[in-house]
Every structure is written in C-alpha cells, then in structure tokens.
Amino acid sequence: MSSPLFYDRTNAGEQLAQVIHRIVTQITSDTGAVPRPIVYGLPRGGLPVALPVARLLHCPLDIVVAKKISHPNNPELAIGAVTADGNVLWSEQTSFRLQYSQEGEAALTEAIHKAKLQLAQLSLGCPPVNPQGAIAILVDDGIATGMTMAVAAQALRAQNPAAVWICAPVAPLLLLPWLEQWGDRVILLETPQSFFSVSRFYAEFPQVETEEALACLQQQNDWLADSK
Questions:
Q1: Sign for the pseudo-dihedral over CA of 96, 100, 102, 107
Q2: DSSP letter, residue 159
Q3: What are the backbone dihedrals phi and psi of residue 106, each rounded to the nearest 5 degrees, phi first?
Q4: Rounded CA separation 111/97 (Å)
Q5: How do strand 135-139 and strand 163-170 relate by DSSP bridges?
Q6: How far apart are CA 184 and CA 189, in angstroms?
Q7: Largest Cα–Cα distance in the chain?
Q8: DSSP label at 141?
Q9: Distance (Å, rounded) from C-alpha 15 to C-alpha 12?
Q10: CA 163, 145, 197, 86 torsion-angle sign
C-alpha cells in the first residue's frame, strides 16, 4: 500500500456515509418505504466515523459498547468479546476449558467491567431510542478480527430491529463471509488482502478520548433535536 486509504476517521466516515445513503435511497426507491435508521457507533474509535453517517441519514446516533476478552497470557489476543449488557461471543478457537477456567472467567469479568464503565461514561450523550423495527446501522473505524462487531450485532439483534447492517471503512477480504453471518448487510469501502492493523489505512489515527466520543453523540443528537 503506497499511501493510506483515508486521511482520518471523519474523512472515512464521510465516504462511508455517501455509500450507505445511496443504498438507503435505492431501497426506498425500490420498495417505496424503508424502516427508520439508527446509527450505532462502537466506542470510542467508531464514533467519529459514525457521526457523518448519522448526519447524512438525519437519524439518531447511539452506541453499542463491546470489549474484547483478552487471553490470560496474552492481552493482545482476543479470545472473545462481550457487550456492556452481557452478550458474550467466544472465538471459535477458544476451548471450552479456557472459557470455564478461573482465568477465562476472570478475563470475561474484566471485559464486562470495562464495557460497563465506558457505557456509564458515554450514556449521557445517548438518545432514548428503541431499535425495534428500525435498521440498526453498526459503524466502526475498521474491522480487524470482527469479534466486537459480531457481538454488538448479536446484542442489537436481540432487540428485534428490522435489520442489522455492519459497516466500516475497511476490513480484511477473508473476513467478509464470516461478517455476513452476523449482519443482514455488510458495507465496507475497502477489503484489502493484506491486513495487519486498522491504523495502517489512516494517515491520522489518534486515540479517541472519552470527551471526543461524548461530543460526537451530543453534537448529532442536539442537532437532530434542533432540526425538528
């Protein structure tokens, strides 16, 4: 790859927004109606990408907090993922023995704690929306393993939306068939064969702090309220 695919998360989000908007418009044209959309960013990095999507679709911006469950002996290795409300998804490579060991249960407990803490930090910016009957559009800044995106989709599915869309600027091509198991539609701008980390596809990829993530939520939902 000679140059990054995206300048920063906002740039990626603007490009993703255009593609999603075209698809929503096409569905509306074909069917005469489309369920109301709700955009869900995966905190924290997914929120600056999700903001332009929610803005173009003129819809609420909410969150699903999902955290990886780290291997007890290798914190960088995800053995699963969990949402703040307790939806758990274990990697197919994770043995039952590890899942139900003291170390596995401790790793799960730590991940749930992190997810609940982040939800508490960001909940003030979240709108009072119910995804039942809506198109739930899940957005992240990139998908590397797909574990957090899949468990987020699983959590949303339990709330009976009309559909769950999995959306990101970039994800590995080999991951596409697996992602399609979790979403009714998967929207990716780029699917490179060679994939080491999400950050390598961005010119600017700083860590998104809690204050910035909260500002994204508040900015969209305040704008939506003012425009009614």
A1: positive
A2: T
A3: -65, -40
A4: 18
A5: parallel
A6: 17
A7: 54
A8: S
A9: 5
A10: positive
**Residue pLDDT, tens place only, 2-58:** 589 999 999 999 999 999 999 999 998 888 888 999 999 999 999 999 999 999 999
Run of H or E including 103: helix 102-122
Which one-letter amino acid corresponds to residue 223? W
In what helix (H) or strand (E) does residue 53 lie, and over which residues does it extend?
helix 47-57
Q: How far is CA 18 from the centre of its chain?
A: 18
Q: Are 65 and 47 in contact (CB under 8 A)?
A: no
Phi, psi (deg, nearest 5) at residue 40: -120, 115
Q: For residue 12, give Cα distances in angstroms to 8, 34, 53, 118, 212.
A: 6, 25, 10, 24, 17
pLDDT at 76: 78
Please state, as a whole number, how many other Cβ atoms lie within 10 Å of the Cβ of residue 62: 23
Q: Report mean pLDDT in 10-residue bins for the chain, 228 residues.
A: 86 98 93 91 97 97 95 85 94 83 90 96 94 97 95 97 98 95 97 91 96 96 87
Report pTM: 0.95
Which pLDDT value is given to residue 2?
Answer: 57
Please give the structure tokens belonging to residue 67. 């955290």
Residue owning tokens 């508490």: 120
Mean residue pLDDT across the chain = 94
